Amino acid sequence: MPLYSQFVIGPPGSGKSTYCAAVRDLMIQNCRPVTLANFDPAAEFLPYSPDIDIRELVNFAQLCSSGPSGPNGGLLQCFRVLEDNFSWLTERLPKTSNLYLIIDFPGQIELYLSCESILTLIRRLQETFDLRAVVLNLVDCNRCLESASFLSSCLTSLSLLVNLSLPFLNVLTKIDIYRDSQDCEIDFEEISKCENLSTHMTGLIGTSKFAALHDAICSLLEDFNLVQFEMLSVKDPQLLVQVVREADHACGYMLR
Ligand SMILES: Nc1nc2c(ncn2[C@@H]2O[C@H](COP(=O)(O)OP(=O)(O)OP(=O)(O)O)[C@@H](O)[C@H]2O)c(=O)[nH]1
Ligand SMILES: [Mg+2]
Questions:
Q1: Which ligand 1 atom is nearest residue 173's CA?
Q2: Pocket mutation for ligand 1, best pick of 6, 8, 18, 235 (most atoms within 8 Å of C-beta)
Q3: Where are the domains of the chain?
Q4: pLDDT digits (tens, 9 = 90+) for 197-215
Q5: Ligand 1 pocket residue status of 108, Cβ below 6 Å
Q6: 126 with 165: CB under 8 angstroms?
Q7: Which residues fall inside 5 Å of ion ligand 2, going by CB?
Q8: C-alpha 98: how far from chain center
Q9: CATH assignment of 2-175+228-255?
Q10: In 10 A of CB 68, how many CB atoms?
Q11: So where does this one cross the membrane (predicted)?
Protein backbone atom coordinates (compact mmCIF):
# COMPACT_ATOMS: atom_id res chain seq x y z
CA MET A 1 0.00 0.00 0.00
CA PRO A 2 1.61 3.33 -0.99
CA LEU A 3 2.40 5.79 1.76
CA TYR A 4 2.63 9.26 0.25
CA SER A 5 4.54 11.66 2.42
CA GLN A 6 5.93 15.16 2.72
CA PHE A 7 8.96 15.47 5.00
CA VAL A 8 9.00 19.16 5.90
CA ILE A 9 12.47 20.33 6.93
CA GLY A 10 14.32 23.67 6.98
CA PRO A 11 16.16 25.96 9.39
CA PRO A 12 14.52 27.08 12.65
CA GLY A 13 11.81 29.64 12.04
CA SER A 14 11.65 29.06 8.29
CA GLY A 15 7.89 28.43 8.46
CA LYS A 16 7.65 24.61 8.62
CA SER A 17 4.87 24.31 11.22
CA THR A 18 2.89 27.18 9.67
CA TYR A 19 3.11 25.49 6.26
CA CYS A 20 2.08 22.12 7.74
CA ALA A 21 -0.98 23.67 9.38
CA ALA A 22 -1.95 25.50 6.18
CA VAL A 23 -1.48 22.49 3.93
CA ARG A 24 -3.50 20.23 6.21
CA ASP A 25 -6.36 22.76 6.22
CA LEU A 26 -6.20 22.93 2.44
CA MET A 27 -6.33 19.15 2.10
CA ILE A 28 -9.23 18.84 4.53
CA GLN A 29 -11.12 21.52 2.56
CA ASN A 30 -10.54 19.42 -0.55
CA CYS A 31 -11.68 16.21 1.19
CA ARG A 32 -8.22 14.68 0.89
CA PRO A 33 -7.16 12.19 3.54
CA VAL A 34 -4.20 13.58 5.49
CA THR A 35 -2.30 12.73 8.67
CA LEU A 36 -0.08 15.38 10.25
CA ALA A 37 2.76 14.32 12.52
CA ASN A 38 4.82 16.58 14.75
CA PHE A 39 8.37 15.20 14.95
CA ASP A 40 9.81 18.13 16.88
CA PRO A 41 10.18 16.91 20.47
CA ALA A 42 11.15 20.40 21.64
CA ALA A 43 8.12 22.18 20.14
CA GLU A 44 6.48 24.36 22.76
CA PHE A 45 3.74 25.77 20.57
CA LEU A 46 2.26 24.33 17.40
CA PRO A 47 -0.21 26.14 15.15
CA TYR A 48 -2.12 22.85 14.68
CA SER A 49 -3.21 19.87 16.68
CA PRO A 50 -1.08 16.93 15.48
CA ASP A 51 -2.53 13.52 14.67
CA ILE A 52 0.77 11.95 15.74
CA ASP A 53 3.05 13.70 18.21
CA ILE A 54 6.60 12.62 19.11
CA ARG A 55 6.20 14.49 22.41
CA GLU A 56 3.96 11.62 23.54
CA LEU A 57 6.88 9.22 23.03
CA VAL A 58 9.78 11.26 24.41
CA ASN A 59 10.11 13.93 27.04
CA PHE A 60 12.75 16.22 25.55
CA ALA A 61 13.51 18.23 28.72
CA GLN A 62 13.83 15.09 30.82
CA LEU A 63 16.05 13.43 28.22
CA CYS A 64 18.38 16.45 28.09
CA SER A 65 18.60 16.78 31.86
CA SER A 66 19.14 13.07 32.50
CA GLY A 67 22.15 12.61 30.21
CA PRO A 68 25.41 14.32 29.32
CA SER A 69 23.98 15.86 26.09
CA GLY A 70 22.92 19.43 25.52
CA PRO A 71 19.84 20.29 23.44
CA ASN A 72 21.34 19.19 20.10
CA GLY A 73 22.59 15.89 21.47
CA GLY A 74 19.22 15.47 23.20
CA LEU A 75 17.44 15.89 19.88
CA LEU A 76 19.58 13.20 18.26
CA GLN A 77 18.83 10.99 21.26
CA CYS A 78 15.07 11.54 20.72
CA PHE A 79 15.37 10.18 17.19
CA ARG A 80 17.26 7.16 18.51
CA VAL A 81 14.29 6.55 20.82
CA LEU A 82 11.96 6.82 17.83
CA GLU A 83 14.18 4.40 15.90
CA ASP A 84 13.92 1.90 18.78
CA ASN A 85 10.15 2.37 18.92
CA PHE A 86 9.31 2.28 15.23
CA SER A 87 6.07 0.37 15.92
CA TRP A 88 4.89 3.36 18.02
CA LEU A 89 4.77 5.29 14.74
CA THR A 90 3.33 2.58 12.48
CA GLU A 91 0.55 1.80 14.98
CA ARG A 92 -0.58 5.42 14.79
CA LEU A 93 -0.88 5.56 11.02
CA PRO A 94 -4.46 5.19 9.77
CA LYS A 95 -5.14 1.90 7.99
CA THR A 96 -6.50 3.50 4.84
CA SER A 97 -5.44 3.45 1.21
CA ASN A 98 -3.83 6.54 -0.34
CA LEU A 99 -2.43 7.53 3.03
CA TYR A 100 -0.83 10.99 2.94
CA LEU A 101 1.49 11.70 5.84
CA ILE A 102 2.96 15.16 6.46
CA ILE A 103 5.83 15.24 8.94
CA ASP A 104 6.84 18.52 10.60
CA PHE A 105 10.52 17.97 11.44
CA PRO A 106 12.79 19.97 13.77
CA GLY A 107 14.97 22.75 12.33
CA GLN A 108 18.40 21.49 13.46
CA ILE A 109 20.33 20.65 10.31
CA GLU A 110 22.65 18.13 11.98
CA LEU A 111 19.66 15.80 12.16
CA TYR A 112 19.65 15.47 8.37
CA LEU A 113 23.38 15.59 7.76
CA SER A 114 24.87 13.56 10.59
CA CYS A 115 22.15 11.51 12.27
CA GLU A 116 21.91 7.87 11.26
CA SER A 117 18.47 7.55 12.90
CA ILE A 118 16.76 9.72 10.29
CA LEU A 119 18.19 7.61 7.46
CA THR A 120 17.17 4.44 9.34
CA LEU A 121 13.68 5.86 9.82
CA ILE A 122 13.37 6.54 6.09
CA ARG A 123 14.69 3.06 5.24
CA ARG A 124 12.30 1.36 7.63
CA LEU A 125 9.33 3.33 6.29
CA GLN A 126 10.45 2.22 2.81
CA GLU A 127 10.68 -1.41 3.92
CA THR A 128 7.39 -1.45 5.83
CA PHE A 129 5.32 0.61 3.41
CA ASP A 130 5.57 1.48 -0.21
CA LEU A 131 6.94 4.90 0.82
CA ARG A 132 6.67 7.66 -1.77
CA ALA A 133 8.12 10.67 -0.01
CA VAL A 134 9.23 14.11 -1.02
CA VAL A 135 11.43 16.32 1.13
CA LEU A 136 10.29 19.94 1.31
CA ASN A 137 13.24 22.10 2.30
CA LEU A 138 11.81 25.42 3.50
CA VAL A 139 14.10 28.45 3.35
CA ASP A 140 13.11 31.91 4.63
CA CYS A 141 13.25 34.28 1.67
CA ASN A 142 15.27 36.73 3.78
CA ARG A 143 18.18 34.39 2.92
CA CYS A 144 18.04 35.95 -0.58
CA LEU A 145 18.93 39.38 0.71
CA GLU A 146 22.68 38.72 0.65
CA SER A 147 24.60 36.69 -1.87
CA ALA A 148 26.63 34.78 0.72
CA SER A 149 23.54 33.63 2.65
CA PHE A 150 21.67 32.74 -0.54
CA LEU A 151 24.56 30.72 -1.99
CA SER A 152 25.10 29.03 1.35
CA SER A 153 21.38 28.05 1.43
CA CYS A 154 21.72 26.61 -2.08
CA LEU A 155 24.77 24.55 -1.06
CA THR A 156 22.99 23.35 2.09
CA SER A 157 20.09 22.26 -0.08
CA LEU A 158 22.48 20.25 -2.28
CA SER A 159 24.05 18.67 0.76
CA LEU A 160 20.63 17.65 2.13
CA LEU A 161 19.60 16.30 -1.26
CA VAL A 162 22.71 14.14 -1.48
CA ASN A 163 22.44 12.82 2.07
CA LEU A 164 18.70 12.12 2.17
CA SER A 165 18.52 10.70 -1.38
CA LEU A 166 14.81 11.37 -1.81
CA PRO A 167 12.82 13.51 -4.26
CA PHE A 168 13.47 17.05 -3.12
CA LEU A 169 11.70 20.39 -3.36
CA ASN A 170 13.09 23.72 -2.17
CA VAL A 171 10.62 26.37 -1.05
CA LEU A 172 11.26 30.07 -0.40
CA THR A 173 8.89 31.02 2.39
CA LYS A 174 7.26 34.27 3.64
CA ILE A 175 7.51 35.81 0.21
CA ASP A 176 4.64 38.20 1.14
CA ILE A 177 6.97 40.13 3.45
CA TYR A 178 9.07 41.47 0.56
CA ARG A 179 7.09 40.84 -2.60
CA ASP A 180 5.00 43.97 -2.52
CA SER A 181 7.51 46.15 -0.71
CA GLN A 182 8.59 49.30 -2.56
CA ASP A 183 12.00 49.26 -0.86
CA CYS A 184 12.97 45.75 -1.89
CA GLU A 185 14.58 45.52 -5.31
CA ILE A 186 15.14 41.78 -5.27
CA ASP A 187 13.36 39.87 -8.01
CA PHE A 188 12.44 36.74 -6.05
CA GLU A 189 10.83 35.14 -9.08
CA GLU A 190 14.11 35.34 -11.01
CA ILE A 191 16.28 34.31 -8.09
CA SER A 192 14.05 31.30 -7.35
CA LYS A 193 14.90 29.83 -10.76
CA CYS A 194 18.65 30.08 -10.01
CA GLU A 195 19.32 31.33 -13.52
CA ASN A 196 21.59 34.30 -14.30
CA LEU A 197 22.65 34.27 -10.68
CA SER A 198 25.87 36.18 -11.32
CA THR A 199 23.81 39.08 -12.69
CA HIS A 200 21.53 39.13 -9.64
CA MET A 201 24.40 38.98 -7.22
CA THR A 202 26.88 41.23 -8.99
CA GLY A 203 26.60 44.15 -6.57
CA LEU A 204 27.27 42.01 -3.53
CA ILE A 205 29.78 39.70 -5.18
CA GLY A 206 31.92 42.61 -6.33
CA THR A 207 32.40 43.84 -2.79
CA SER A 208 33.29 40.51 -1.25
CA LYS A 209 36.78 39.13 -0.88
CA PHE A 210 35.20 35.82 -1.77
CA ALA A 211 33.97 37.22 -5.09
CA ALA A 212 35.73 34.59 -7.19
CA LEU A 213 34.39 31.78 -5.02
CA HIS A 214 30.85 33.17 -5.17
CA ASP A 215 31.17 33.47 -8.93
CA ALA A 216 32.29 29.87 -9.23
CA ILE A 217 29.37 28.66 -7.06
CA CYS A 218 26.95 30.69 -9.20
CA SER A 219 28.34 28.98 -12.31
CA LEU A 220 28.02 25.56 -10.71
CA LEU A 221 24.38 26.21 -9.76
CA GLU A 222 23.52 27.64 -13.18
CA ASP A 223 25.36 25.04 -15.26
CA PHE A 224 23.79 22.01 -13.58
CA ASN A 225 20.47 23.57 -12.57
CA LEU A 226 20.45 21.47 -9.41
CA VAL A 227 18.67 23.93 -7.13
CA GLN A 228 15.45 25.78 -7.78
CA PHE A 229 12.84 27.13 -5.40
CA GLU A 230 9.09 27.25 -5.33
CA MET A 231 7.77 30.43 -3.77
CA LEU A 232 5.39 30.35 -0.82
CA SER A 233 3.37 32.62 1.36
CA VAL A 234 0.79 30.96 3.54
CA LYS A 235 -1.26 34.12 2.98
CA ASP A 236 -1.44 33.44 -0.76
CA PRO A 237 -3.68 30.43 -1.53
CA GLN A 238 -2.44 30.23 -5.14
CA LEU A 239 1.19 29.83 -4.05
CA LEU A 240 0.18 27.26 -1.43
CA VAL A 241 -1.75 25.22 -4.01
CA GLN A 242 1.22 25.40 -6.38
CA VAL A 243 3.61 24.05 -3.71
CA VAL A 244 1.22 21.21 -2.90
CA ARG A 245 0.88 20.43 -6.62
CA GLU A 246 4.66 20.24 -7.02
CA ALA A 247 4.95 18.06 -3.90
CA ASP A 248 2.17 15.73 -5.17
CA HIS A 249 4.01 15.47 -8.45
CA ALA A 250 7.36 14.75 -6.82
CA CYS A 251 6.01 12.01 -4.52
CA GLY A 252 3.83 10.46 -7.21
CA TYR A 253 0.47 11.23 -5.58
CA MET A 254 -0.56 12.91 -8.83
CA LEU A 255 -0.16 9.61 -10.71
CA ARG A 256 -1.92 7.29 -8.23
N1 LIG B 1 4.50 36.82 6.81
C2 LIG B 1 4.60 35.48 6.90
N3 LIG B 1 5.00 34.91 8.06
C4 LIG B 1 5.10 33.55 8.10
C5 LIG B 1 4.84 32.74 6.98
N6 LIG B 1 5.05 31.45 7.32
C7 LIG B 1 5.45 31.48 8.62
N8 LIG B 1 5.49 32.73 9.10
C9 LIG B 1 5.86 33.15 10.46
O10 LIG B 1 7.21 32.77 10.72
C11 LIG B 1 7.38 32.43 12.10
C12 LIG B 1 8.00 31.05 12.21
O13 LIG B 1 7.10 30.11 11.67
P14 LIG B 1 7.07 28.59 12.14
O15 LIG B 1 6.04 27.89 11.31
O16 LIG B 1 6.93 28.48 13.61
O17 LIG B 1 8.54 28.12 11.73
P18 LIG B 1 9.23 26.72 11.99
O19 LIG B 1 10.11 26.45 10.83
O20 LIG B 1 8.19 25.68 12.31
O21 LIG B 1 10.11 27.02 13.28
P22 LIG B 1 10.81 25.98 14.25
O23 LIG B 1 9.81 24.90 14.56
O24 LIG B 1 11.18 26.79 15.45
O25 LIG B 1 12.00 25.43 13.54
C26 LIG B 1 5.99 32.51 12.72
O27 LIG B 1 5.87 33.75 13.36
C28 LIG B 1 5.05 32.45 11.52
O29 LIG B 1 3.82 33.13 11.74
C30 LIG B 1 4.40 33.38 5.76
O31 LIG B 1 4.15 32.77 4.72
N32 LIG B 1 4.31 34.76 5.78
MG1 LIG C 1 7.98 24.37 13.94
A1: 31
A2: 18
A3: 2-175+228-255
A4: 877 776 555 566 788 888 8
A5: no
A6: no
A7: 16-17
A8: 22
A9: 3.40.50.300
A10: 7
A11: none
